[in-house]
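Holo prediction — 1-O-alpha-D-glucopyranosyl-D-fructose.
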Amino acid sequence: MKKKWWHGKVAYQIYPKSFLDTTGNGIGDLRGILQKLDYLKDLGIGILWLSPIYCSPLVDQGYDISDYYNIDPLFGTMDDFNELLEEAKKRDIAILMDLVINHCSDEHEWFKKACADPDGKYGQYFYIRDWHEGEPLPCNWRSYFGGSCWEPLPGHPDKIYLHLFHKRQPDLNWENPDLRAELYQMINWWLDKGLAGFRIDAIINIKKVLPFRDFPADREDGLSSIDHMLAAADGIGDFLKEMAENSFYSHDAFTVGEVFNAKDDALADFIGENGYFSSMFDFKETILGRTPLGIYDWSRPTPEQYKTAVFEAQREMANIGFYSNIIENHDQPRGVSHYLPDGEINETSKKMLGGLSLLSRGLPFIYQGQEIGMENIHSWNKSATDELGAKDGFKVALEAGLTREEALEKMMHYSRNNTRTPFQWDATKNAGFSSGTPWLPVNSDYAAINLAEQQSRPDSVFQFYRKLTHLRTASPYRDTFVYGTFTPYLAEQKNLFAYLREGEQTILVAGNFQNEPQTMKLPAKIKAVLLNNLPEIGALENEVRLEGYQFVVLEV
Ligand code: TEU
C-alpha cells in the first residue's frame, strides 16, 4: 500500500456553530477555532474537518450553501479563514472543509436565476419539470426530511423542482457537464488556496435514476424512501472519477466521503488504490437498528451487534484501504449515550468505547466533545426536536400512533441536536462557550462534564484520549496501529470486544463490554501494558480478569 501523508493522523470534526463563540452572539466562530488550535494540537490532532462555514441561510445549519466562495459573516471573514489555514499549517494540522454539492441553497444565485428563467442556462443546473395540478408527480420519492421531494418552483405554478433533502435545498443536476465543470472549478479554487481536502456530503445522492420513476411505497404516505432509488441508480462512478481527476488527484487532497448506500462490491472503487476518495466513513454501526418506518421504530444495538458490525467493516476494508472510524458526528446521538447501555455510562465505559474505536485499523475521527465524554441531552427542551430530522421524525411518530411522550422520548435519543449542543469548556456560565445566549442550550450536565475539570485530573476521559492519540501518532507502536493488520480475537466470547493489531509488534486491544467481570485467555505472554482504563489488571499466567468495562492494550 502506497503511504500517504494522512495515514498516521488523528482527525477531529468541528461543528463551528457550537465550538467557541468569541463575539457573544451565541454562535461559534472562526476566531474561536483559532484560539483552540493549540488545544487541538495537544490532543494529538493532525486533520481538522469543519462542518460548513460558507454563506448560508442556515435552514439545514450550513448544509444549504448560498455562496461556495465566501465565509458566512456569522462565522467570520475570509481573512480569519486564511489565518486559520496559516496557523494550522504551523502546527502541522491539515484543514478540511465540508463539500456540499448534491444540492445548494434556494438562495444561491444559480437557483435564483433558474427561477427567473427556467428555460435558460441555470434551469439546467437543477431538476425542473412541467407539472399541472392534478397530474401525477414525476416520481414518488420521499425527501429525507419528510414529504414529497417535489416542490413548486417559486414564481412558476406550472413547474416543480427536485429536492432530496429540505425544500430549501434544491438538488443540483449532475447530468449537466456545465454544472460539473463549475463545481470542479470551485473545488480547485479552495485547494489552490491551501486547503488539504474535503469531507464530502451526501455524495451518493448525486446520481439519480432517470427518467424519474416510482419505487414501491414503504409507508402509508404512498412515498418511497430514497434508499430504493439509490439501490437502483447506476453510473455514479463516472461522476466521481471525473471529479477526482479534475481536482483531488492533482492536489494530493485528502477526501473522506459520506457514503451511506454504496453497493457491496464498490468499496475498492471508492477507497482503493486509485479510488474516488482517500477514505469514507464506516457507517455500519451507525445504521444498526434503523428501519425504513422512521425514527420512532429505531432501536439501539447491543454490544454484540456493535462488535459484529465493526468486525465486518474491518474485514471488508482490510486489503482495500482505510475506512474513517467514528462513534458519532453532528447527525447522530452521542456515541456514549447510544452504544453503552443505559445506567452503565461512566468514565470507565466511555474510555473503553473510545479506545476500541481509536485503535482499530482506519483513520480515527473524534467529534468535538467526544474527548471529554459529552452525552446526549438529558431532559427535554425545545432544542431536542428543533432540527429538521427530529422535527419530521416526531410528526411521523405521532402519525404512527405514538403518544406525544413516547414520540418525544424517541426524538430525544436520536435528535441531531444531541451532538450539536455547545462544547463544554468549563463550569462557568454557558460552559464557557459564549458570553451571550447560546443558539442551542448548553447540556445541563456541564458542571460535571467539562474540559477544564478534566484537564486538571490525570484519570479523566480527556487524558485517556490524549494517551490514545499518542499511541497512534507518536509512540514506538505508531506503525503497528496505523498499518498493522486487524484480527478479531475470541470473537465468540460474549461481550468481549477484542482484536489483535499486528505489525512490527503484536498488540492485543480488549474491552469487557459489560458490567460483570470476565476472564480472557491470552494469545501469548504479556510483554507490556500500554494502556489500562483501571488502576490495575488482574493478570495470571495465561489469562487476564477484566472488570466491568475494563479496557486494556497489551503488547504480547
Ligand atoms: O447527511 C446526509 C444524510 O444522508 C443524512 O440524512 C443521514 O442519512 C442521516 O443524517 C443519518 O442520521 C448530510 C449531513 O451530514 C447532514 O447534516 C445534512 O443535513 C445533509 O447531508 C444534507 O446536506
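READOUT: The chain has 16 helices and 23 strands.
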